């Protein structure tokens, strides 16, 4: 089947539309399974979610930059994306359309990923219902907690990881 963290990502993506949480979930999974591969399909999906987070906050530069990177990775990982139950051709079209919208400064609207595996979709719908999330509803609501979630984040671990990486790099030089 599919990794539990991927299903959790899809539940938040289509349920409460908490793209920041989507990023957190897949980043943790990626770091535990394929940490040195910055061209991983997981990284492409993470960047996509981050782009939508930025777009909803009207950070068009951040949204464009991360979506361009995400599209570049996802285009190279079409087989892996297909194996994750997504229609790669439709995803590519949807993301390119979204990129144009962002470049024009267009208003954010909800995004639904083209899930083609009916069992995956049903599992996600069930998990959404068990969490009290609607499935694929509009997220154009002013839920400030979700829209500005990064402001509430405890960055202690992020700062520590960056310092550790910097120290490791210095030791290698």
From TrEMBL:
Signal peptide residues on this chain, from the entry's feature table: none
InterPro entries according to UniProt: DUF309, TTHA0068_sf
Highest taxon listed in the record's lineage: Bacteria
Pfam family, one: DUF309
Protein name as it appears in the record: DUF309 domain-containing protein
Source species of the chain: Cytobacillus firmus (Bacillus firmus)
